[in-house]
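Dear Dr. H.,

I hope your travels went smoothly. While you were away I took the liberty of generating a structure for the chain from your last submission, since the lab meeting agenda had it listed for discussion. I wanted you to have the full record in hand beforehand rather than looking at slides cold. The sequence, exactly as received, is reproduced here:
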Amino acid sequence: MYYVIVAGLMVVLPIASIVIEWLSGPVADLVPLIGKWFVFWAVGVRLCAAGIKQIVQPEFTARRIFGIEEPGAMKVVSELGISNVAIGAIGIASLYFPSWTLPAAIYGLIFFGLAGVRHLGNRKRNAIENMATATDLWAALVLAVYVIGAIG
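The corresponding predicted structure, in token form, is as follows:
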């Protein structure tokens, strides 16, 4: 189920939302749509959902993704969850406050980019961490396209 949810929130739903909006009326530029929908789905819904999971069930992230069994790690994962819910809420709200899209995209670019690179450094990644690595780097790439297009 993890793979379906992550693929849906990080790839399928943002692309589907872009295509639907693109086809529903005249759109002058694709870049704002990329930002709008990737920030909403990947930064917003994905990080908010991950954060809730990390707060409620920190052992999933600690044990299944990072292979950490120590009880103290659960406190750190819960704190990460709180941060993820906070930025996720901003990503979701960016749909209603478009001026929040670029700052949330910059956050997402940094977060997903550094997390993806950090995952790459782990030579003993399991399948779940491989999925996190791929989708983190994918999101960072797409958000970089948006950020460069928005400020350039």
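Two observations you may find useful: The helical segments are 2-24, 30-56, 58-65, 73-93, 101-120, 127-151. The chain has a mean pLDDT of 95.

With kind regards,
E. W.
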